[in-house]
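anyone seen this seq b4? input:
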Amino acid sequence: MLTNEKGIALILTLLIITILVVSILDFSHTIQIDTTMTGNFRDGVKAYYNAKSGINFAIALLKEDAEDTEYLPDDLTEKWAKSCYMPPLAIDDGVMSVCIVDENRKININKIFKGENRLNALQRIIASLLDIDKDDDTIINIINNIRDWIDKNDESQTAENAEQSYYESLDPPYPCKNGPLDTISELRLIKGIIEVVKENEKIKDLQELMEYLTVYPVNDNEAEKININTASRQVNDKININTASRQVLESLCYEPEMVDVNEIIGHQEEEPFEKVDQIEDFIGCYNEIKDMIAIESSYYSVDATGEVNGIRKRILAVLKKDTDKIKIVYWKVE
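predicted toks r here
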């Protein structure tokens, strides 16, 4: 009987010890998880502020550029334009990297109603990027759907295009904007664009198309010409020939061969244009498109990343450059 009681006591003791060990291990595991989560949260906050310092760095560069009233052109030889090639900067126990891109180097979708030349340029660059003939029905339908999305009425460009009734019939339904795009990602909502991109073999996703298009400035009352009399920088909605990409430059005329792209890019890199008319010899359709090109920029997209102990935070911002200040018009944290 005594032996049985000792055996039961031993079993109970082992059981209690086992429960205690499991509880301690579980508690220890919980502590490790909490510690890791706390550390990740701390590093995430640090990474965010590292990324934010990248935005502040971009603001400082653009403010310095805006205050230089003796040199109006915005070009690829300036400090802000070299930010994308800078190595990550060390900040305490983390790093920060920043890339500033001129939005005026792109074609503004919101301004396609300001003349046939702007509309045609948009049609040509989309066709070129998708490697489809610019007069193909696919391209014409995309352009008309964009126009229907932006215009202020509910009248479709053609019977095949989209206005309010089409978007309300979707599952889930959403309204047609009938106004300017606020962000370039709105292209995903416009009829037919996502489908065409998915079926296209030349580009991988819509992001590649977005690299050549912009929505800034969004409203017409934001866009003004440069005041020559006061030599002040004001907002413009034109394409900056000092920063425009090869694809954008080739889309300016109805035939790519009418633009001496190599010569223009050579000037961009070594001797930027200081007056718009200096480019006349390099663009065969200069007289038709001179009102949609400039040598200055007003909007810049900034991609800033902060990293601490493997935790990364990314801030995407768009900055508007005025004469006396830099304004944040878009802000997204990833």
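The chain has two domains: 2-104+299-333, 111-211. Confidence is low (pLDDT under 50) at residues 223-233. kinda curious what u guys think
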